[in-house]
Design brief:
membrane, mainly alpha
């Protein structure tokens, strides 16, 4: 037969599936004292863990706030630059509108140009008629001069 050591026998007894055997093996002679930490150490451990977690969460929250503030500041600066550009464009537009109004008030209207053109045409036509009259008069004087020259040459 096979002989087992006492520790192997107790292991076999523990592996037994019958309830009776288990009760025989598990006998209690007395209460085994369980050493638990004193209550003060438990509270200190909890407080230390809570403090560490709180500190880390506050640190990460501050970092996120700093990044968000930086992004917000950059957005505000971009908005300021855009507003400045728009203000410059509006100032230019107002200047151009003032200049346009000044040109409209001092510029000639199409009707004015038509009137001046008509007056110039009348003046030109009048001068042309005077030139024609002057030519006719000069031609008449030439004719009279030629008659006088012919009559005097005949007399001489």
């Amino acid at each position: 037969m096979l002989r087992l050591s006492t520790s192997a026998r107790s292991t076999l007894r523990h592996l037994s599936t019958s309830a009776v055997r288990r009760e025989e093996v598990v006998g209690t002679v007395g209460a085994v004292p369980v050493r638990r930490p004193v209550g003060g150490f438990r509270i200190l451990g909890f407080l230390f863990g809570f403090s560490a977690a709180s500190a880390l969460s506050i640190y990460y929250l501050q970092q996120d706030t700093k990044v968000a503030s930086g992004l917000l500041l950059a957005s505000v600066e971009e908005l300021q630059q855009g507003t400045g550009k728009i203000t410059n464009h509006l100032d230019r537009l107002q200047t151009v509108e003032k200049e346009l109004a000044a040109l409209k008030s001092s510029g000639a209207i199409k009707e004015d140009v038509s009137k001046v053109r008509g007056e110039t045409k009348k003046l030109y036509d009048g001068l042309h008629l005077e030139v024609l009259d002057l030519r006719a008069h000069v031609w008449g004087v030439e004719q009279d001069l030629q008659k006088v020259v012919k009559t005097e040459s005949i007399r001489i």
